[in-house]
Amino acid sequence: MSIDELALDFDAVYPASWQSREAGWISEELATLLSVIDQKLVNLTEQGPSAWTQEALHSHLGWEELRGLAHRALALMPAQPWSLPS
User: Which residues have C-beta within 8 Å of that of residue 50, sequence separation ≥ 6?
Assistant: First the structure.
């Protein structure tokens, strides 16, 4: 998977995340983190192509921050987000 594909996958799904939030599957804290991740990706895009190389993925501070945010977001995701509450 290329760097662009990682961001494009997130960009394709993030706008619809409000539905999961309304269903109670995304907490306020998780929604905030997802919003920050979205903005960080926008910031990287605004920096131009140099932020979207394989080398940048390993050395750019923005990508390091994104990995940390993604790790925190993953920890907040429910184990089975698509099952209805009992």
Answer: 56
